[in-house]
Structures are given as structure tokens and as C-alpha cells.
Amino acid sequence: MADAEAHWYVAHTYSGYENKVKMDIEKTIENRNLQDQILEVSVPMLNVVEEKSDAKKTVQKKMFPAYVLIKMIMNDDTWYVVRNTRGVTGFVGPGSKPVPLTDAEMESMGLKVDAPNVPFSIGDLVVVKSGVWEDTTGVVRQIDHQNRTVTINIDMFGRETPVEISFNDVETV
Questions:
Q1: Which of 2, 73, 123, 151 is 20 to 30 A away from residue 136, measured at CA?
Q2: Which CATH number is associated with domain 125-172?
């Protein structure tokens, strides 16, 4: 199960039931011990300034009324839990197949996209653990979070040469 990746999905709810659905899903996660499969349930809020009788007041409004965002690993169990939560009418996607939000969609909604946790940064000395460049050391020059690759400079024939390698194939020295 550890190789499955969690994505953000959108569940449609009855209007006004968003917070109740969030609480019910969180309670089910706890009861069924699904913390490693359903990671986060969110009802994004927006601060809005309202003017009433010459007084400005900041209130919180739902960014997406009748929708709840859920970060989860999609499988039969998690689909069943969310889909059968009281107040949920279904997932957003064609038919009954939920479609995860893309990073671009998350960013366009103003929601942060979690950058993968990378145990090294630019300038670090790393060693290649496998592949053609195994046991080669190099300095990190670029980190590509989206493609999960790192560009390192290695010494080849007395010259610094950039090589792109998967996150999984390098570790810090």
C-alpha cells in the first residue's frame, strides 16, 4: 500500500452539509484507523469583507459551497467510506470514477501544493545509489519537484557535467 500516492479529490455534498461531512469522514477515519489512507479533509474558507449599516466586518465564507476536498489514496475502502458518508452525493468526475485534482488546479484555487519532502538541497554533495552513475558523487545544482529528479554536476574526464537523476537514486553524503 505504501507505493500508492495520495491525491486531492472533490466530493459533492448537500449544500450546508460541508462541515458535517468533514466531521463525519474524520470520525470514520479515526474509527476505522484509515489515517494512512485518508490524509486530510478540507472545507476551504475565504475571508470576505461585508458592509452592513456603515460597518465593515470580515466573515468567513466557503470557497466552494457544496464541495469538500479530500486528500486520500483512492482504493475501494476509501471510496466506500467517502461515498457512503451521509450528505455526500458523489465524487467529481465522469460517472462514478473520481478524478484527482492536478497541481495546476490546486494552485489556481489558491491552495498550496505540497512539495515532496526532499532530504537534500541545492549545493549539497550527494552520492548516486544505483544506475549507470552508481557510487558517483556530485553537487546538487537543480531540483525538479514535479518530475522528482535532481540535476547534479559530476566530474567526467576532468570536466563538470550535469546529469539528471531520480530522487530515489541519490542520497546525501
A1: 2
A2: 2.30.30.30
